[in-house]
């Protein structure tokens, strides 16, 4: 596996692959890789000749009181895991490499940001969209792989690809979970032993809401109330519980079509997110 730290270097790797008629799959990450990331790398490897993985903790998507400096980083570990999963090239740029000067413009996301994580993180998805577009322009892959766990991010990137006619296929892969249902996340390391034991209630609550919809309950407010009630027995704090159409992320009174159930939940040192998508 080759490691490239510069934009020029990664572009040369991709150009070399193109000259050999090789296809390119791309997995953008912020590092501290877990099985969810590795499943994306493996999915890319199954479809493409060259797999590029980026590791970049993007400051544009962190608010002033968020955990940019605390975000877990372990490059040597990530390097080994990426290699074992099948990555061919690891793109590991510095902040200075990605943003050598103050950005004269960013992407402003105008739809789908006033709900879920966007409601409590103003500007977050502008930062996500900007860095993903920048990475797309740098790597120029055939296909990019994202996890369904970050469903709002996936919806926004899908809309961005469509809006700007970006010639990249978006591949959304299923959420990878622990045996007890907890979604894999870099932030799970911040849970205490007691919180970790309790945290599967998030996915259990999503499953409950999905079963109620599948059983015939179509009123959004009833599903919301019942899901919130189930979470009250846990020791943390609800950030949001939502039931929305997907990927439009609108709030229908009556549920029909593709629906996302989503939860964000605060523990003492970790904010966990999860979702469940189904046809109502």
TrEMBL record:
Primary location group: cytoplasm
UniProtKB keywords: ATP-binding, Cytoplasm, Ligase, Nucleotide-binding, Pantothenate biosynthesis
Cellular component aspect of the GO annotation: cytosol
Active site annotation, chain numbering: 37
Superkingdom of the source species: Bacteria
Example of a GO MF term: pantoate-beta-alanine ligase activity
Sequence positions that bind (R)-pantoate: 61, 153
Pfam families per UniProt: Pantoate_ligase
Family: Belongs to the pantothenate synthetase family.
Function: Catalyzes the condensation of pantoate with beta-alanine in an ATP-dependent reaction via a pantoyl-adenylate intermediate.
Classification via HAMAP family: PanC
Protein name: Pantothenate synthetase
Gene: panC
């Amino acid at each position: 596996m080759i490691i490239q730290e510069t934009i020029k270097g990664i572009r040369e790797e991709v150009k070399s692959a193109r000259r050999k008629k090789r296809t390119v799959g791309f997995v953008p990450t912020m590092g501290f890789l877990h099985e969810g990331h590795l499943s994306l790398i493996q999915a890319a490897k199954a479809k493409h000749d060259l797999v590029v993985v980026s590791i970049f903790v993007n400051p544009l998507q962190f608010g002033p009181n968020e955990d940019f400096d605390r975000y877990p980083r372990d490059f040597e570990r990530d390097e080994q895991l990426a290699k074992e999963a099948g990555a061919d090239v690891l793109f590991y740029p510095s902040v200075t490499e990605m943003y050598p000067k103050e950005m004269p413009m960013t992407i402003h996301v105008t739809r789908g940001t006033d709900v879920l994580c966007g409601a409590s993180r103003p500007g977050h998805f502008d930062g996500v969209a900007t860095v993903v577009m920048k990475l797309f322009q740098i790597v120029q892959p055939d296909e990019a792989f994202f996890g369904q766990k970050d469903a709002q991010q996936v919806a926004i990137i899908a809309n961005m690809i469509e809006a700007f006619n970006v010639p990249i296929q978006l591949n959304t892969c299923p959420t990878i979970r622990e045996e007890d249902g907890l979604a894999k996340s870099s932030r799970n390391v911040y849970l205490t032993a007691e919180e970790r034991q309790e945290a599967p209630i998030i996915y259990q609550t999503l499953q409950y809401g999905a079963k109620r919809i599948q059983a015939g309950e179509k009123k959004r407010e009833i599903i919301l109330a019942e899901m919130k009630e189930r979470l009250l027995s846990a020791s943390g704090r609800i950030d949001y519980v939502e039931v929305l159409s997907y990927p439009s992320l609108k709030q229908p009174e009556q549920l029909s079509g593709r629906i996302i159930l989503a939860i964000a939940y605060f523990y003492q040192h970790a904010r966990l997110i999860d979702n469940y998508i189904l046809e109502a």
